[in-house]
Amino acid sequence: MQRRFWPLSLTIALGGLVSQAWAQTALTWQQVRDKFEAANPTLKSAQLNIDESRAAEITAYLRPNPDFSLTMDGFQPGPTGGLWRPLSGVYQSPGISYLHERAHKRELRRDSAKESTTIAETAYLDQERNLIFNLRNAFVAALQAKAFLENAKDNLDYWDKELGISRQRFHAGDLAQIDLDRLELQRLPFESDYETALVNLRTAKIQLLTLLNDNRTPIDQFDVAGPYDFKAELGPLEEFRNAALETRPDLKEAIENVELARINHELAVSNGSTDPTFSAWFTNNGSFSNPAATRTIGGSVSIPLRIFDRNQGEKARTQVDIGVHEKLRDAAEAQVFNDVDSSYWTIVQAVNLLKPYKSRYLELAADTRNKVSFAYQHGGASLLDYLDSEKAYRDTRLAYLNLIGSYLTAAAQMNMAVGREVI
């Protein structure tokens, strides 16, 4: 039996393909959102509610079915005069009746059902808006955790280089043992920052995968990609307000509820009108008014007498309901302005703080640390000064990264307040 061996080049190529297949895949925000909308079970359930509401439109617009009746008379139960012919005198009278709905009842029921479907669609958009906000926060948290991890790794690498120089100075007799020990102990906070950032990144990825309803992708093979930065320019507040008035789903839902209340009031008034029932029948026997006829047709109209209006309460209730939803619409509009204004000024504050950090303080902190480090290595600065400069740089860098996270969170809040992505 001959054995076949794979060529070495083919084995290496297959290994490369496998490693690429299992490599870490970084998803952008749009890819994360598309995956979320395609897989999230809460959104899927909300979409089914819309389909259910559309099915109710069919029921609301159904016509009344006609009624069929069959009357039989003249059956002889026993003999009379010595004769018994039970079926000879029986006659049949089939009839049909139909309830005619007046005052556009069917059309108003249809309009009410369609408006309910529109409200269900708007409620779905509002639910999606809230879920997208949670998703955006989880995405920002993952980006922030990545930035913290990268910063912690840079700090640790920098300190290891400084320790290498300090050890060389110690072996050369230029550094005391106590100073070297203090520098060695100073590595512990950097290690702690790195491990904490690593755990936070894993936690952020787990939360994001949970929102994506993905329990199969390993954490080490899942990653996100996006700019962890801020935009210095921001549009005027009025622009965001107008966009929110046009887009915000919960405000649209409040407006549509007012329209639904008006349709329901019209339907309540329409339901108070009387609906006649038309009937017709056919007989094989003559009628009392025309005994010579062998086949006759008859008809009737039945009209309810509205002596008492049994729909007064529903008319009054739906009239009040219009006013209730108008007040709720005004409250929803006020809430939109409140959300937009709060998010706007939060972003303005974050940008005002980030600008000097980016233009001055980050560079100043790094330059100060490098100068003090150089002076310390050449005996021109104390160890305490050097450690203070390192702590100042570390605190400045962390404050900057935290401010960017606050800015991105406020931007997500603004997108939620407007109802679509504007930042």
Structure write-up:
With 423 residues, the chain is an alpha+beta fold. It has one domain (25-65, 102-275, 310-418): Outer membrane efflux proteins (OEP). It has helices at 8-21, 29-39, 41-60, 105-171, 177-185, 187-211, 237-247, 249-271, 312-377, 383-418; strands at residues 25-27, 67-73, 91-99, 222-224, 277-283, 296-302. The chain has a four-stranded antiparallel sheet, with no helix packed on it. α3 runs antiparallel to α4. The two termini are 68 Å apart.
Quick structural summary:
67% of the residues lie in helices and 9% in strands.
| CATH fold category name | Outer membrane efflux proteins (OEP)
Q: Strand arrangement, largest sheet? A: 2-3-5-6
Annotated CATH architecture: Up-down Bundle
Uncertain runs:
1-23
The residue-averaged pLDDT reads 86
Please state the structural category: alpha+beta
**Record field, number of beta strands:** 6
Outline type: elongated
SSE layout and pairing:
Blueprint: H1 8-21, E1 25-27, H2 29-39, H3 41-60, E2 67-73, E3 91-99, H4 105-171, H5 177-185, H6 187-211, E4 222-224, H7 237-247, H8 249-271, E5 277-283, E6 296-302, H9 312-377, H10 383-418
Parallel strand pairs: 1-4
Antiparallel strand pairs: 2-3, 3-5, 5-6
Helix pairs in contact: 2-4, 3-4, 4-5, 4-6, 4-8, 4-10, 7-9, 8-9, 9-10
Key terms:
423 residues, alpha+beta, Outer membrane efflux proteins (OEP), 10 helices, 6 strands, elongated, disordered N terminus
